[in-house]
Amino acid sequence: MELQGKLAVDIEGVSKTYSTKGGVVKAVDDVTMSVRRAEVTTILGPSGAGKTTLLYILGSLERPDEGKVNVAGVDLLDPSVDLTEFRRTKVGFVFQFFNLIPSLTAIENVTLPMDLAGVPAGVQNKTAAGLLERTRIDESLFNRRPPRLSGGENQRVAIARALANDPDVILADEPTGNLDSETGKVVIEILRSLAHEDGKCVIVVTHDETIVEMSDRAYRMEDGKLRFHRVSA
Amino acid sequence: MTLGSYYFDSVDSTEVIKSAFKSEVSEINKDGKYEIATDYSDYESIADPLVKAGNSSRIGLAATLGACVLIVILSMVIIIGYRTKELGILKAIGAKNLQVIGQYAVEVVLICLFAVVLASGASGFTAKKMGDWLLPETTMQNGSVLQAPSKAMPMFARDRSLYKEGSGFQGVSSESNESFATLDVTYRGVLFVYAALMLLVLSLFGMAIPVVRLVRLEPVKVLRME
Ligand SMILES: Nc1ncnc2c1ncn2[C@@H]1O[C@H](COP(=O)(O)OP(=O)(O)O)[C@@H](O)[C@H]1O
Ligand SMILES: [Mg+2]
Fold first, then answer.
1. A54 CA to middle of ligand 1, Å?
2. Complex ipTM, two decimals?
3. pTM of the full predicted structure?
4. How far is the CA of A207 from the centre of ligand 2 (A)?
């Protein structure tokens, strides 16, 4: 595939330290990593390993103390870069606890990022409906609010939201952590199809070994250190 | 010779009354000699309860307004606290500061409108209660005195200035004596707009601090709270 081989994420020597009352924590320690488009990359590691911190650095939510960070062709440490714009259009987040807006319906949650990006109102609903279909949400659920949707449905709506502005990179933080294994499997299948059919760069952070089986490339993370784990057959 | 008792509500209107007096009394008293005796304590005994009623309703109004401003500020703090997560998510998915503030401001304005309706209702109610509470006394003690001049005197000086603008009261027409003892609480358009504006301005001030917090809010802090 043409998209394969292009680097979507390219980071080098990235470190992030938190100072707390209890002392200094090196959450991310000299991490270098390149991730291609059209692949699912997993980062496996125990709780506290620094996975979320690394993911947030890739999504511009955290700023590293040192290193180079290039995501979707954007140098995140260049002070002239508009990070809000970057978050709105270049990356899509999927969280363990979905983080949908409870007062908005499923489809409104998906149109929200389009709204923020100034997409014309006429286009929004059509696009959102297409994305929800893509993530296997039945049309009868479009106007339900998140509290009235199941966990799996919530997460699929959240994936549709992450896709709203057609980002290059999907960053998923324990996307199945709050789901049973069956619904988790569906979520992973959807994420895989986004990589393989739409050419997205999908990065999944998890402590679930079974997800690693379904990924194209896997890293292991421990005590802030990242090391290569395996490539799928 | 005494023609009757005349009560003036204010020292300021003396000149007006004098000239009105002159034109009326000089008809009867051809030699042009007359005397104006001012009995201030009499005036006070009539006017005091009314002035008091006016004042206390003003205090009531201020108190309810104050309470409403407090409600508005409190609800904003609650909104910010309760919805920090949502606002943080908005930021995480790429909302600009202005968009987040806009989201929040819409709610604040809605709450303000609600508070204005509440405030005007509450202050109207308090004013009415205050009036009811103070005025029956007035009628009992001074009823006769109050009614006497209403027959004898040209009415230019009476209720008009006893009920001052902004008190929330409107004097009842002087034609009917029985209704004089009650106060009609009416919503004055001007007063309403005034209260609404005041609330809005105060709320905007109250908004400033949460807005600064919103701008500084780091989405990561919110996302890590789970
Ligand atoms: N805001 C913060 N302040 C202080 N320490 C933090 C903060 N965020 C994360 N940490 C610490 O950094 C380390 C890595 O955290 P995290 O990236 O969340 O790990 P993981 O997602 O792998 O469980 C942990 O020890 C955690 O306690
Ligand atoms: Mg984590």
1. 10
2. 0.90
3. 0.73
4. 9
